């Protein structure tokens, strides 16, 4: 088993950080392949809670090389802050590597993100306001500035100046926001950051990864966000601006799809979403509030309350198909401990028809109503259970239902936030 891809199967926050940390223990390398500091991956070790935004969740093991891939967009100030936070907690982060091909986030990306959200009142996406979308726009429009540009200060400055002029014009004329960017100050700040991480920069992450694959090293690809936030396969336009799906790993780290041995889908036992956009099994008030409070469902990046709802089998099937899931890690099953009855959405009712495939058209999706199967709750504390055999029968039934819908093998069940609260199958 050399390459494993970890992917979120819903709208993010499924517990990818916890599962990555858990598996990283037996890995040689962990690579983050897309997204930026819109992500918030939580790792709980004993009484310490770490929220990682850019650095791979394998960083707590010194022997594991942790790589920020070419597919990631980096806000260097956030990266430095994160390294400092780790150092303060006794983790030197010397095992961190950064792709020279990753794109950089600048203040104008954040300003554009905020301005667009403010103007597009009706269709507001509810982004994390970290400048992620505008940075990816520049990447695909070939106006981006990459880590490698630090090696030539003159051209860095030229590219930045061009971008500052363009973005000031757009912000001023289009969004009526007067901005006065100081070229020298930004150059100074960014080269200050560069100095601190220069020794971590790798010219070609793809060479690093492929050499490791050839040596049969064990590699984990850590996805951010989730399948339903994928720019191609999610609920567009209410998505993020990258490809969190398993295929995104090949692009964001530079290796061929035939090298992937295992695709592990992280599945929350219910569903949450932060920001705008469709969410068919959402429960507003009542049970939704109970899920939020019991599950601590507040954004790890923005602190926003997450919208909560029942497990959605249609979303699960979609994620299974798009990612080619081979295995599942089901998380937060303990959050359902107190329920008498738990609903599982097995299909949608849409214009008089029962459908099992997630509709690509949002207009059609709006007309869909979830079809639920009700399962009896187990009403027992699962947080101390570490073997599958010891789970109550009703909890097993619930897990088996999710496994059957996904059509992939359940290999991990998480019963609490802490590293050790896990059942391995
Ligand atoms: P990620 O973005 O997919 O890494 O997920 P987040 O870290 O944003 O959100 C998951 C939240 O649930 C974090 O607060 C985790 O500490 C917590 N968590 C993870 N697994 C479990 C679990 O099995 N049970 C409970 N109760 N909390 C969990
Ligand atoms: P992790 O990796 C949950 C959501 C935002 C918004 C949409 C677009 O922790 O699972 P963006 O800032 O990316 O342009 O926002 O995507 N979003 C996430 N939701 N978890 C995340 O990351 C997210 N990253 C972005 O709330 O709806
Ligand atoms: Mg998160």
Characterization of the model:
The protein is of the alpha/beta class. The protein has two domains: 3-96 and 204-424, Adenylosuccinate Synthetase, Chain A, domain 3; 103-199, Adenylosuccinate Synthetase, subunit A, domain 2 (Orthogonal Bundle), CATH 1.10.300.10. The chain has helices at 16-24, 76-88, 107-119, 132-140, 153-174, 183-197, 205-214, 247-253, 287-295, 313-323, 362-366, 393-406, and strands at 3-8, 29-32, 41-45, 48-52, 65-68, 73-74, 96-99, 103-104, 201-202, 219-222, 260-268, 271-273, 307-309, 311-312, 327-331, 341-350, 353-355, 368-376, 409-414, 422-424. The protein has a ten-stranded mixed sheet with strand order 9-7-5-2-10-1-11-15-19-20, sandwiched between helices. Strands 14, 16, 17 and 18 form a four-stranded mixed sheet that branches. A two-stranded antiparallel sheet has the order 3-4. Strand 19 and strand 20 (422-424) form a beta hairpin. The longest helix is centred in the middle third of the chain and has 22 residues, at 153-174. The relative contact order is 0.16. The model has no long low-confidence stretch (mean pLDDT 97). 6-O-phosphoryl inosine monophosphate is lined by residues 8, 11-13, 38-41, 125-128, 130, 132-133, 224-226, 229, 240-241, 274-275, 300. Residues 8, 11-13, 38-41, 125-128, 130, 132-133, 224-226, 229, 240-241, 274-275, 300 line the site of 6-O-phosphoryl inosine monophosphate.
């Amino acid at each position: 088993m050399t390459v494993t891809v970890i992917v979120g199967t819903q709208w993010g926050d499924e517990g990818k950080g916890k599962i990555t940390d858990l598996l990283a223990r037996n890995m040689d390398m962990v690579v983050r392949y897309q997204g930026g500091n819109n992500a918030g991956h939580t790792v709980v070790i004993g009484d310490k809670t770490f929220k990682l935004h850019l650095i791979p969740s394998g960083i707590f093991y010194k022997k594991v090389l942790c790589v920020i891939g070419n597919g990631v967009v980096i806000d260097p100030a956030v990266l430095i802050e994160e390294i400092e936070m780790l150092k303060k907690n006794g983790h030197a982060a010397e095992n961190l590597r950064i792709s020279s091909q990753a794109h950089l986030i600048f203040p104008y990306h954040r300003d554009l993100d905020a301005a667009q959200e403010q103007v597009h009142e009706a269709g507001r996406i509810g982004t994390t306001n970290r400048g992620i979308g505008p940075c990816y726009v520049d990447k695909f429009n070939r106006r981006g500035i990459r880590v490698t540009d630090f090696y030539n200060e003159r051209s860095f400055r030229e590219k930045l100046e061009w971008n500052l002029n363009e973005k000031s014009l757009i912000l001023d004329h289009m969004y009526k926001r007067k901005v006065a960017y100081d070229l020298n100050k930004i150059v100074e700040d960014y080269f200050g950051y560069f100095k601190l991480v220069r020794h971590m920069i790798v010219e070609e992450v793809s060479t690093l990864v492929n050499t490791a694959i050839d040596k049969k090293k064990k590699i984990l690809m850590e996805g951010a966000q989730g399948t339903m936030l994928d720019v191609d396969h999610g609920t567009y336009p209410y998505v993020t601006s990258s490809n969190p799906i398993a295929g995104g790993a090949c692009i964001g780290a530079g290796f061929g799809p035939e090298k992937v041995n295992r695709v592990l889908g992280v599945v929350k036992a219910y569903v949450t979403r932060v920001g705008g956009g469709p969410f068919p099994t959402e429960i507003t008030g009542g049970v939704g509030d109970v899920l939020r409070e019991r599950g601590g469902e507040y954004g790890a990046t923005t602190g926003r309350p997450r919208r909560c709802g029942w497990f959605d089998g249609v979303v699960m099937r979609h994620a299974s198909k798009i990612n080619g899931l081979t295995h599942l890690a089901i998380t937060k099953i303990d959050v359902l401990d107190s329920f008498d009855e738990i609903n599982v959405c097995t299909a949608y009712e849409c214009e008089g028809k029962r459908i099992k495939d997630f509709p690509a058209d949002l207009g059609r999706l709006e007309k869909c109503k979830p079809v639920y199967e009700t399962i009896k709750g187990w009403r027992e504390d699962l947080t101390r259970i570490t073997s599958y055999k010891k789970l109550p029968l009703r909890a097993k039934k619930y897990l088996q239902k999710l496994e059957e819908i996904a059509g992939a093998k359940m290999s991990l069940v998480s019963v609490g936030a802490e590293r050790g609260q896990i059942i391995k199958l």
